[in-house]
């Protein structure tokens, strides 16, 4: 019962995290007339404030000394901060410039790009279904390139930057809250410097647009941190396969907002390209579920075989012990060699 409650709670956290990420396109336009770079700088500054308060409440500071003593880990953190800065900044720009649908495509094809990076960088071997999914994904990019009249560079940059970020995070092996704190700590001074420079130039919108606008800019820290906290809570409660399925919620919501709410154009060739992407994701999901089911069956079979072997060995030992005790209990017998009188 406790395990079921934990999984139910994890699902709620997962829906919360991906739901918030899916609805975030509604938030960035509220920050106009701030530009994408100014919004990004505020996001970095206020995110550090939020995670700093969270770490203070949880009293989790030991990781700081550990990361400072390891130059490799510090370098990877700096690289992660740079990559996610590109991802955040481009996404904000895309949403505020009427490219929500193309931005959502980036997160649809992200699993395919992650698989490709696994092959190219980590030397992983793919199953046939995975190769087929990657091939369909490449065909989708070609179709969409024809539809847009150019490469869907926003989608590709978002997908590759987030996939690279995931690879770096895998090598870092840090908790979500700690890694976000480390990354935003490295982003903080450049971001604050940029905001100060905007203020000196008279181009800052933080105070010029009123208290409500200032509060919205400060809320970028919560918009960044809260979904990550929910994601972390979900990750420790639900299976990875379930979390993998939940990740499609965010781009589905973003795509729906782009078409229905922001009324972005979807000519037939774009529908064709997106349909290919969705077909690739269906194939990828089917293969992942089939592989997970097969792995569970093999594990259950191995456990049953091991249990049967242990039971058989135990029964054999019991039988041997019983036979020996019976032999010793027969009157007039002596299992030890007898000695003849001299």
From TrEMBL:
Keywords: Cell membrane, Membrane, Transmembrane, Transmembrane helix, Transport. InterPro entries: EamA_dom, EmrE-like, RarD. Signal peptide: none annotated. Residues 308-329 have a biased composition (Low complexity). It holds the Pfam family EamA. Residues 308-342 are annotated as: Disordered. Its main location: membrane. Belongs to the EamA transporter family. This is EamA family transporter RarD.
């Amino acid at each position: 019962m406790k395990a079921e409650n934990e999984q139910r709670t994890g699902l709620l956290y997962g829906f919360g995290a991906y739901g918030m990420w899916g609805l975030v396109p509604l938030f960035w336009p509220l920050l106009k007339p701030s530009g994408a770079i100014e919004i990004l700088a505020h996001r970095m500054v206020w995110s550090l404030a939020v995670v700093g308060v969270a770490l203070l409440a949880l009293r989790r500071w030991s990781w700081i000394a550990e990361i400072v003593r390891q130059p490799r880990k510090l370098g990877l953190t700096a690289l992660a901060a740079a990559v996610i800065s590109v991802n955040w900044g481009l996404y904000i720009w895309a949403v505020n410039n009427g490219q929500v649908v193309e931005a959502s495509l980036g997160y649809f094809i992200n699993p395919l790009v992650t698989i490709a990076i696994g092959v190219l960088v980590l030397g992983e071997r793919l199953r046939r279904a995975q190769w087929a999914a990657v091939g369909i994904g490449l065909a989708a990019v070609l179709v969409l390139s024809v539809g847009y009249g150019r490469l869907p560079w926003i989608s590709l940059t978002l997908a590759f930057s987030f996939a690279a970020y995931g690879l770096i995070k895998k090598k870092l092996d840090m908790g979500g809250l700690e890694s976000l704190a480390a990354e935003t700590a490295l982003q903080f001074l450049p971001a604050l410097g940029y905001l100060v420079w905007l203020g000196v130039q008279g181009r800052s919108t933080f105070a010029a647009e009123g208290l409500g606008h200032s509060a919205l800019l400060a809320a970028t820290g919560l918009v960044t941190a809260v979904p990550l906290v929910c994601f972390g809570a979900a990750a420790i409660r639900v299976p990875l396969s379930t979390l993998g399925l939940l990740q499609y919620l965010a781009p589905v919501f973003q795509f729906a907002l782009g078409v229905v709410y922001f009324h972005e154009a979807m000519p037939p060739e774009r529908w064709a390209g997106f349909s290919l992407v969705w077909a690739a994701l269906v194939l990828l999901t089917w293969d992942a579920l089939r592989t997970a089911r097969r792995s569970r069956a093999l594990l259950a079979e191995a456990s049953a075989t091991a249990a049967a072997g242990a039971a058989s060995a135990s029964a054999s030992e019991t039988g041997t012990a019983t036979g020996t005790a019976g032999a010793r209990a027969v009157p007039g017998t002596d299992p030890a060699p007898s000695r003849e009188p001299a």
